[in-house]
């Protein structure tokens, strides 16, 4: 069975504090380590009332101190927001603190609205257009080669932090293939080009050295519970969040509700169902076929999972149920 990993946004729940969100993220990583998950990644977002992971490097340092073996990383750092040297120094620092445990996933989107994006970096369009060059510069800064015009990342140089490219389009797949880097597709919220992107990436992959092969990851949302009814109830938090985003709302991650009927319109229901079409919601037994079909269809090398659940204990329980399901599926395959 392929490895399972976790993507976390450190959700800030309605009526809860940011510090509570950070504590729960640490508990998630610790539980994931116990259950044998491969990686724990944080995604960079800015200016969102329901998302606490605006500074992944800082939060990863906190989580690294409370774990010992699980790989930690960004899924991802939105590179147009930052100078590559700053990112190299941040993740070089993490790599020195937690050797052989740090990954660096890179995205091209700003992870926020355009006004906030401009506040993060002055020339946004130039930054986006420079994305491939920035990826290469970051790789040089973290590597062992000669200085680039005398610029050196300290910490950073010689750490060779593994880079991943993330995306939800064919463009990111093409760049990842050209640079011979592992590739992760954001199918947990942008499913439309998943199969095309994976095909483009695999077909055009250029190995950096002998033996290198394409390596793919794809994302899903998961809400597992002891009953289907409870899972459906817990999943309404994610459904509400997507409705809020479509309406331009900026709210904390919502508590679940008994019914979405009075909250969304028919068009909003269709939009959410389409965006979250790969979400697995139910019991271990009810989602097993859906999960195995997704893995078989995509032929991915690794699955990354987000657990959009308001209640902390329910989120931890869902993480555990997914780990149990993976073990059962592995035994079945064997």
TrEMBL record:
GO terms for molecular function: monooxygenase activity; oxidoreductase activity, acting on paired donors, with incorporation or reduction of molecular oxygen. Keywords: Monooxygenase, Oxidoreductase. GO terms for cellular component: cytosol. InterPro entries: Bact_Lucif_Oxidored, CmoO-like, Luciferase-like_dom, Luciferase-like_sf. It comes from Marinomonas spartinae. It holds the Pfam family Bac_luciferase. The keyword Glycosyltransferase does not apply. Residues 4-295 form the Luciferase-like domain. The gene is luxA. To bacterial alkanal monooxygenase alpha and beta chains. Signal peptide: none annotated. The keyword Cell division does not apply. This is Luciferase-like monooxygenase.
């Amino acid at each position: 069975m392929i490895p399972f990993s976790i993507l976390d946004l450190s959700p800030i729940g309605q009526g809860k504090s940011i510090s509570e969100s950070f504590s729960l993220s640490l508990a998630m990583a610790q539980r994931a380590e116990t259950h044998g998950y491969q990686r724990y990644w944080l995604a960079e977002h800015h200016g969102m009332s329901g998302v606490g992971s605006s500074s992944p490097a800082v939060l990863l340092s906190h989580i690294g101190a409370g774990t010992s073996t699980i790989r930690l990383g960004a899924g991802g750092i939105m590179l147009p927001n930052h100078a590559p040297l700053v990112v190299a120094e941040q993740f070089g620092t993490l790599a020195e603190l937690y050797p052989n445990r740090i990954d660096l996933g890179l995205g091209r989107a700003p992870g926020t609205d355009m006004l906030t994006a401009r506040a993060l970096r002055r020339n946004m369009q130039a930054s986006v257009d420079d994305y491939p060059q920035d990826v290469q510069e970051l790789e040089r800064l973290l590597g062992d080669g000669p200085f680039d015009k005398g610029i050196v990342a300290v910490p950073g140089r010689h750490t060779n932090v593994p880079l991943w490219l993330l995306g939800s389009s064919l463009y990111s797949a093409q760049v990842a293939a050209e640079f011979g880097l592992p590739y992760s597709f954001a199918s947990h919220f942008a499913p439309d080009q998943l199969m095309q992107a994976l095909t483009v990436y695999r077909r055009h992959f250029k190995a950096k050295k002998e033996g290198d092969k394409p390596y793919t990851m794809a994302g899903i949302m998961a809400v597992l519970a002891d009953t289907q009814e409870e899972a459906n109830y817990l999943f309404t938090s994610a459904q509400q969040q997507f409705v809020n985003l479509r309406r331009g709302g900026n709210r904390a991650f919502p508590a679940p509700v008994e019914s979405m009927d009075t909250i969304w319109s028919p068009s909003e229901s269709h939009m959410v169902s389409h965006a979250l079409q790969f979400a697995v919601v139910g019991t271990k037994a009810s989602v097993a076929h859906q999960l195995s079909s997704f893995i078989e269809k995509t032929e991915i090398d690794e699955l990354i999972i987000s657990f959009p659940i308001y209640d902390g204990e329910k989120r931890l329980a869902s993480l555990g149920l997914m780990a149990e399901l993976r073990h059962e599926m592995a035994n079945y395959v064997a």
